[in-house]
Design a protein that fits this description.
16% strand; globular; magnesium; kinase; 11 helices
Length: 269
């Protein structure tokens, strides 16, 4: 493992806590509270602003914009497009979570529109969503991926080159690429699949990390590693979904660079 790469990744946690980035979230209603709370525990500041009349100006004040398509409606669609336009004008990083894009033509249309009028710096989805966006066949069930992960890294690389952004595909292993360099993370816990919103919370953390660092590839690796290490710690103390959710917040709050370095299982490509 490259110690230089790992040093870059782990230092971003401290950068988040020093800079306290404001993460503007337009996210789904199922997990909005979880996203806000995990951002606070991570050291960032959440703003769950989606009113059309406010988003353009609010993006200007933000360190990052997190767009989650999970419960997409017409009002959110309009706000997302306007917010992404503002992000392009004001050079604010945009993290897109294409929830259920493999099962919804409408969501693909919205993603294309955001790409046309705004910008996307990071696409973070499960393996099924990322393979679908990359034009590969994927096994999905609603918002969940049941894909084996075969070809996931290749899909990340291809989509990254196509969209000129960092791409992350999450699953039993997590794959991240900026089209030139890649990482595979093998940390985490199956308990993430037993609670609603683990992926959404991770997307919000990616927003915080990207809001604190210019190195978007390292920022996304750092956010995913942080979530996974915290999950591993949480499941030791709470082996049922309800208590795991609560303990996860505590473990995110208690993270430090040393814990990330000691626990990291990353392969660099």
């Amino acid at each position: 493992m490259s110690s230089t790469n790992l040093d870059k990744v782990t230092k971003i946690l401290s950068e988040v806590r020093n800079k306290v980035p404001l993460v503007h979230c337009i996210t789904n209603y199922v997990t909005i509270n979880d996203c806000a709370n995990i951002l606070l525990a991570y050291g960032a500041s959440p703003a769950m602003c989606e009113a059309y009349d406010e988003v353009f100006d609010f993006v200007k004040l933000s360190s990052a914009l997190y767009i989650n398509l999970g419960t997409l409606n017409k009002e959110q669609e309009q706000a997302m497009i306007l917010a992404s336009t503002s992000a392009k004008i004001h050079n604010v990083p945009v993290i897109l979570d294409p929830v259920a894009c493999a099962a919804s033509v409408k969501k693909i249309q919205v993603i294309n529109r955001i790409s046309q009028v705004g910008k996307i710096d990071v696409i973070k989805g499960n393996i099924g969503e990322i393979k679908s966006l990359a034009g590969q066949s994927a096994n999905v069930r609603g918002v969940d991926s049941i894909d084996s992960g075969e070809g996931a890294l290749e899909s990340c690389i291809a989509l990254s080159k196509k969209c000129s952004c960092v791409v992350a595909a999450t699953g039993k292993k997590d794959f991240i690429s900026d089209g030139r360099k890649s990482a595979i993370i093998e940390n985490g816990t199956e308990m993430f699949t037993k609670i609603t919103g683990s992926g959404c919370m991770l997307g919000a953390l990616c927003g915080a990390a990207c809001g604190a660092s210019e190195d978007k590839f390292s920022a996304v690796v750092s956010a995913i590693l942080s979530m996974n290490i915290a999950g591993e710690e949480a499941v030791k103390a709470a082996n049922a979904p309800g208590s795991f959710r609560v303990k996860l917040m505590d473990c995110i709050y208690q993270l430090n660079e040393e814990k990330l370095k000691e626990g990291a299982k990353i392969t660099w490509k």
